[in-house]
Amino acid sequence: MTGKGINSNLVPEAENSIVEYKNKLKDALEALKSDIDLAFQGGKGNYFSFDVDEETSTLLQFDIIDLDKPVQDELLESINREGIILYEKV
Known about the structure:
Blueprint: H1 11-32, E1 35-40, H2 45-55, E2 61-66, H3 73-82
Parallel strand pairs: 1-2
């Protein structure tokens, strides 16, 4: 490098860094679009929904589904297939 300006050897490295940054930023923005799906059965749904909103600290939104109310068949199948039981009173 002579005089002022950017060292031409650093240009490819800078370009790679910019591309990597853009990809990480894109991933982070996608994660912010996610939400947390919670389905429950029994209990007092209004209290549960309120407690989830008030007692949790996250940037994500909650989708809360009361399984004691009518639920679309596709959603119920998805819950049965992919869902994880967090708490079960025996």
